[in-house]
Amino acid sequence: MNVTALKKNNHTTRFYRNLSMMIALVIVSIYLGLYIRSNQLLLDAVKQQAVSYFDLIVQVRKWNAGYGGAYVEKKNGIESNRYLLEVGGDPDIVARDGRVFTMRNPAMMTKEISKIFSERSGIQFHITSEKLLNKENAPDPFELRALKKFQAGVPEVWEIEDGVSGTRFRYMAPLLVEQSCQKCHVKFGYKIGDIRGGISVSIPFAPIKHAMDINRTAIIGLSILTLAILLGSSYQMFSQLLTQLKKAQNALQEASITDELTGLRNRRYLMSRYQEEFERARRHGGLLGFFMMDLDHFKGVNDSCGHPFGDLVLKSVASTITKVVREYDIAGRYGGEEFAVIVAETSREDMMVLAERMRATLAEMYISDANTCIRITVSIGVAVLNDGDTSETLLKRADAALYQAKREGRNRTVLL
Prior knowledge:
Helix content is 55%, strand content 20%. It has a five-stranded mixed sheet with strand order 9-10-8-13-14, with helices on both faces. A four-stranded antiparallel sheet has the order 4-7-6-5, sandwiched between helices. A three-stranded antiparallel sheet has the order 1-3-2. The protein is of the alpha+beta class.
């Protein structure tokens, strides 16, 4: 069954369309789930990276604060932290050899570590607060939103942000006040455990976005390929199933119009076609004939040779009738040992020739099995459509012609 055949059957088309939609929905759902899950894993990975950097900075700051700050030699490019002077501390000390060292407190150290990471990998750290010692640490819009959320109890904030430096993954978590923080932040009135600000981590998102794009392209390609394979396979299987069903349907239809024993058309089909041919002949003024045939002395065959041999006789007669009639004639078993033939568009003379040829052929035929061999004759009644005929009267004349043939001695053809 091809596409055209499918289209001709609305129920079949609707079923296949619904089946295809279900398959497509399942496949799309599966791959969409995979796409969402894989993207989520990528986001979880970059977030975990940001959390690791945050924890690293926090631990380094604690180390720094635990020692009261770390001193570095003041060389070219290294300046003193002027904000330490504002809170009452001197950031510089002079060694005995005359070298000057300056303190790097946690905030300054965070800034310098961020600069190193930014130059090497683009990753940036930023310590910020709504209450600032160093105005250079003022929060940007993302950080300000995060600080507000920390005050509302949110433990961490992250988002993907597009900016002048490209798309970046932003992460921020709060910084809590510890005892070592009070030295510099005492003027703000913080208590131990208060949120005094936060550290944001900014990671370039372009590699992750590129991976997501590749992932999306791969999943779309795989989903299309899977759909094509499944829909194509289902169409082939569905088409084969419909072909088999069509064959079974045709076989059932054939069985419903065929006589099981002889293989000729059964009486119900024969009479249905007779009515169609009769109406067509009446509409178009065509010719129509009806042959009624009866096997002579068939009851004696059954009684003397048995019913199995009688069945053999009926099948042999049916086979001969099929060979004698023309392709467009319609032959069938009328009932018992009676057969009938519908003959259309044939003159009276040609109908008699056909009927006589059939009678003579059957009369010359030997029917045998392993134990029995006989010859059998038939009586044939022929009726030809007249102007005043109805479908019933034409049949009655054929039947009457058959009985006249039997009365006149059998093995003959009578036309009425």
